[in-house]
Amino acid sequence: MASCWAGRGAGMEPPCSSLPIPALPCWAACPVFLIQVRLQTQTTYQGIIDCMVKTYRHESLLGFFKGMSFPIASIAVVNSVLFGVYSNTLLALTTTSHQERWAQPPSYTHVFIAGCTGGFVQAYCLAPFDLIKVRLQNQTEPRARPGSPPPRYRGPVHCAVSICREDGPWGLFRGAWALTLRDTPTLGIYFVTYEWLCRQSTPDRQNPGAATVLVAGGFAGIASWAVATPLDVIKSRMQMGGLKHRVYRGVLDCMVSSARQEGLGVFFRGLTINSARAFPVNAVTFLTYEYLLSSWG
Ligand SMILES: C[N+](C)(C)CCCC[C@H](N)C(=O)O
């Protein structure tokens, strides 16, 4: 069996099914994504509970799952790009193979550069999926209730086609620059936090155990979301530009006018809910990554 799981003592087995693991936390995380996006882009809610109650009253339980089928389908692709670019950049920078990664750990600078590179590349793969998710999640119309005005987008494909028709194919990349600014440095921080926590809690040159990987992955997610939230707010607002929001001239314009109108607190909207979601999602993500690396690497 894989090297990562080998040196950890008798009875330590890798998880039996690795690929389907992220599916469950992803679906469970849908309502959290929806609340986060609405809190960040709409001013009608007083907080998490208020947003949940209003969404439930107006759109029923199904309302919480709006806009997620498409991004969930894309998660495998986006994560493969991120982790693939990250580990290959690290390989190119350090010439240490995956198997020797814990015995000859790369420097934190190399981990940071590889994380930033992965973040930069994945941002452009993620951009169209994320745009569609944000647009659909911001539709507050109840589903198919006779007599009520129809929502602007009927589903992810209709949303993509409408954006292409209105703004051309590049319209699918609206907000992509803010997304790149959000993900490039914060994914560097993500991988550095993970590596640091693993190394702190594992004896020198040994592979981290499954519990260590889960905890380190969870905290890496929280740390990177804590830093990313201000730009996440800006990204979501720019993606909504032209719909419920005014069109911003750029990232800076969006930052300045949001802060002027709503105060500095605007940059931390969705932080609590993001962090609560980030722990389990990223714990499972890293466990799956380590398992796959050790069995294929
Ligand atoms: C860089 N940024 C903070 C945006 C995301 C970092 C973690 C990515 C993970 N797929 C998640 O959804 O939590």
UniProtKB/TrEMBL annotation:
Alphabetically ordered keywords of this record: Membrane, Mitochondrion, Repeat, Transmembrane, Transmembrane helix, Transport
Taxonomic superkingdom: Eukaryota
Gene source species: Vulpes vulpes
Bilayer topology: Multi-pass membrane protein
Segments annotated as Solcar repeats: 9-92, 106-200, 208-295
Annotated compartments: Mitochondrion membrane
Lineage per the UniProt record: Eukaryota, Metazoa, Chordata, Craniata, Vertebrata
Membrane-spanning segments: 64-87, 107-127, 209-228
Protein name (database record): Solute carrier family 25 member 45 isoform X1
Protein family (similarity comment): Belongs to the mitochondrial carrier (TC 2.A.29) family.
InterPro entries given in the database record: MCP_dom_sf (IPR023395), MCP_transmembrane (IPR018108), Mitochondrial_Carrier (IPR050567)
